[in-house]
């Protein structure tokens, strides 16, 4: 959960969507790789991948909402 939260926060701060995707893919790959080789072995570590997807979607959505609000405030002035 800590890696997914960090991934979501990073997605909220990065401006380039490609950097966000690469970061999320690397974090999920490292997590699944460590979990698959860890003790005790987990039967299906790929089942945790949607957690990273949800975290990134929430982070990107948060960034988009902040940008929309700031644009709206600039238009009002």
Description:
- With 77 residues, the protein is mainly alpha-helical.
- The protein contains three helices and no strands.
- Helix 1 runs parallel beside helix 3.
- It starts with a helix and ends with a helix.
- The mean pLDDT is 83.
Q: What is the 3D form?
A: elongated
- Amount of helix: over 70%
What is the end-to-end distance?
41 Å
Extended strand count: 0
What is the alpha-carbon Rg in Å?
A: 16 Å
Low-pLDDT stretches are: none
The biggest beta sheet reads: none
Beta-strand residue percentage: under 5%
Mean pLDDT: 83
Secondary structural class = mainly alpha
Q: State the helix count.
A: 3
Order of helices and strands: HHH
SSE order and pairing:
Layout: H1 2-13, H2 17-37, H3 49-76
Helix pairs in contact: 1-2, 1-3, 2-3
Put the structure in a nutshell.
The chain is mostly helical and 77 residues long. It is built from 3 helices and no strands.
């Amino acid at each position: 959960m800590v890696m997914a939260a960090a991934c979501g926060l990073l997605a909220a701060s990065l401006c380039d969507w490609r950097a966000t995707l690469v970061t999320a893919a690397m974090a999920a790959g490292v997590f699944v790789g460590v979990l698959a080789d860890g003790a005790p072995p987990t039967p299906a570590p790929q089942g945790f991948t949607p957690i990273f997807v949800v975290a990134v979607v929430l982070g990107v959505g948060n960034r988009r909402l902040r940008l929309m609000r700031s644009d709206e405030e600039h238009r009002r002035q």
